[in-house]
Amino acid sequence: MTEPQQPRGVLYRWASILPVTEATPRITLGEGDTPLVRSVALGALCGLDELWFKLEMCNPTGSFKDRGMVLAVAKAVEGGAKAIMCASTGNTSASAAAYAARCGIESYVLVPGGNVAAGKLAQAIAFGTRIVQIDGNFDEALNAARELTQKHPVALVNSVNPHRIQGQKTAAYEICESLGDAPDILSVPVGNAGNITAYWKGFGECAERGLATLHPRMYGFQAAGAAPLVSGKLVEHPETVASAIRIGNPASWSGAISARDESGGLIEAVTDEEILEAYGLLAAKEGLFVEPASAASVAGLLKLGRAGRLRGGRAAAILTGNGLKDPDTAARHYHPDIVVSDATVAGVERALGW
Ligand SMILES: *Cc1c(COP(=O)(O)O)cnc(C)c1O
């Protein structure tokens, strides 16, 4: 007989670095502790010595949002909240709805009209959240959620809630633990900019605690049609195939700029074509099926590599969400070559041209 294992999850694994107390309910869906796997093909294409993928799509609802949501919901419950609300391009609502269901509290999500990937909406519906489709974009939905949660006894769990950033920083600790140090470069897609802010905070703490000898350069990538941090101007009508980063007014704007400038990094734009190329290459060359927003982190490295702007070193790219979230983009991107056959050996051989 062996000892029963400790429960998994961010609030168990990382309690010592998070604002949790005796009174914080230790909820878990087994989030965090995601694999870090080495690239077999794309690293060389990017001109890197080592490229690692952090598989954040392996979190329980299929995106990194679970890391911060578990803490935000636990703190809301600790504070007596009976309901939570968020505005979301999809993954935040899927995650909020899951943890609310787990805790037996109500959840409300405001989604931008017509712009939410089918898999994410299916999750929110399955978890029994109240969905309000807003006649407007994400930024307008977030403004409404901020005001509503001021006015009503409902906790806001968007990444403007500092517990979200705290929970998300744990991924930086995991990377340092896996590699034995921080990477030279950390590449991440940027939408509302909570995640790049959280990683920079996490890597800073790792260096302070002696878990890393260096600070990575933070490379953030936005979609060209939704790149306010690149242009320095709000984007009123953000447009991109990568719906998770279709955001024109990032809530953590200053956090992203600090991460870039303090780390000697960059925030640049990648086009939808570049995103979809990386999306296809990740699947075909690495066996990793991610949602388009996640592919932006790799599209950016490919673009820099081809321009001769990456000279070796070790990079980690964050694969933020699962490809199954957005089946419509997959259906549009791939033109399946499926042949039909009767159920005989001869029939299959004929169909395959053997
Ligand atoms: C939320 C999200 C992002 C963007 O993260 P921010 O913290 O908003 O910058 C990127 N990819 C996926 C899959 C997401 O769900």
Describe this structure in words.
The protein has 15 helices and ten strands. By secondary structure, it is α/β, with parallel strands linked by helices. Helix 3 packs across helix 4. The mean pLDDT is 96. Strands 1-2-10-7-8-9 form a six-stranded mixed sheet, with helices on both faces.
Main features:
single chain; 354 residues; alpha/beta; six-stranded mixed beta sheet; four-stranded parallel beta sheet; 15 helices; 10 strands; binds pyridoxal-5'-phosphate
Per-chain topology:
Blueprint: H1 10-13, E1 36-38, H2 42-46, E2 50-55, H3 65-78, E3 83-87, H4 91-103, E4 106-112, H5 118-126, E5 130-134, H6 138-151, E6 155-156, H7 162-168, H8 170-179, E7 185-189, H9 194-208, E8 217-223, H10 228-231, H11 253-263, E9 266-270, H12 272-286, H13 292-306, E10 314-319, H14 327-333, H15 345-352
Parallel strand pairs: 2-10, 3-4, 3-6, 4-5, 7-8, 7-10, 8-9
Antiparallel strand pairs: 1-2
Helix pairs in contact: 3-4, 3-7, 4-5, 7-9, 8-9, 9-11, 12-13
The site of pyridoxal-5'-phosphate (PLP) has 18 residues, from helix 9 and helix 13.
